[in-house]
Amino acid sequence: MLTYDAKTVAHLDKLYSTPQIVDQRRRLRAIISARPGEAGLDVGCGVAYLASEVAREVEPGGHITAIDNSQQSVDASKTRIEREGLERLVDVRTGDAADLQFADETFDFVVAAQVYCYVPDVARAVKQAARVLRKGGRLVILETDWDMCVWQSSDRQLTRRIMDARQAVQFAHPNLPRTLHALIRAAGMNLSGVQTFSIVETRYDMNAFSVGIVESMCNAGLKRGISSEDVTAWEQDLRSRTSDGEWFLFEPIHLHGYEIADGHVYVHATLAAALTRSATTSYTVSSQPNKPRKAYPAPKVRYKSKRSVREENSSP
Ligand SMILES: C[S@@+](CC[C@H](N)C(=O)[O-])C[C@H]1O[C@@H](n2cnc3c(N)ncnc32)[C@H](O)[C@@H]1O
């Protein structure tokens, strides 16, 4: 899995200042809808861009706690918080998403943005988030299903192999949005809604998110045994796409909003409204678990290949 060492954290700092990710945070903050006086927890805070922005929204009287399991991320976060003079409002600590060191019902909201995909025991992490939320508290999760990305390249199959390599090397759960709702229900939370929006990039721009991850995709490809010739060819093809209409990345982002269930289903008005507002696509996830079904009977063979029909006809 991707380790957030000094080099990766420096890269994260740069990537998360790109206009696409700045816009992603704007959407995320609109969903969190932090209010003055609230206590919030940012799980896997990275370099504390989000924590420092939300901190200003909980003033006066509120407070943000930001945790990360990478010491380099925590150091970079502390530097940002000090530089911005926010020490009073943000407390940065080392901590694990799956083992939150806080009393029950401590926070009004918990946010985890592009973090649970790295957490091996994500079911436990979600239960921990539910535990530390107050009644009526909300959990906002931002994740990508990395299968859904589209890259423009000359070799679709090689692109797929490199994307798969990145998923295997960097993430514990590269397709989390598909199963998150079930994990959340198991943690005793209700879904308020899901919103998706996408990052679409159409220019080879050194400040673009997509250009920023090409190198790590190549490294993942090499780690998963793709030949250096193939990886080099893929990289060269992408990096030569500097003319208009040659570069394209589509990455869908899923923003999930949940609330603590207190025995009956209700919808947190602010959270639900925020999820619906400005949604490019919103989709519903059933609020009840699927009923277990009997196994489907084995299908009867109804179709015969031309070859087996020919063989049957020619048999004596
Ligand atoms: C892609 S960054 C996201 C940063 C931040 N949430 C944001 O949106 O700006 C992922 C962060 O999650 C942290 N992380 C990964 N696994 C974690 C875990 N089990 N507990 C806490 N943090 C974790 C990484 O160290 C890294 O800083």
CATH topology: Rossmann fold
Strand content: 15-25%
Number of helical runs? 11
The structural domain count equals 1
Percent in helix: 25-40%
Total beta strands: 9
Explain this structure to me?
With 316 residues, the protein is an alpha/beta fold. The chain has a single domain, classed as Rossmann fold. Helix content is 39%, strand content 20%. The chain is built from eleven helices and nine strands. Bound molecules: S-adenosylmethionine (SAM). Residues 4, 12, 16, 44-46, 49-50, 68-70, 73, 96-98, 113-115, 118-119 line the site of S-adenosylmethionine.
Strand and helix layout:
Blueprint: H1 6-15, H2 19-32, E1 39-43, H3 49-57, E2 63-68, H4 71-83, E3 90-94, E4 107-113, H5 122-132, E5 133-143, E6 150-151, H6 156-170, H7 180-186, E7 189-201, H8 209-223, H9 228-239, E8 249-260, H10 269-276, E9 281-283, H11 306-314
Parallel strand pairs: 1-2, 1-4, 2-3, 4-5
Antiparallel strand pairs: 5-8, 6-8, 7-8, 7-9
The structure holds S-adenosylmethionine.
List keywords for this structure.
alpha/beta, globular, 39% helix, 316 residues, Rossmann fold, single chain
Summarize the structure.
The chain is α/β, with parallel strands linked by helices. It has a single domain, classed as Rossmann fold (3-Layer(aba) Sandwich), CATH 3.40.50.150.
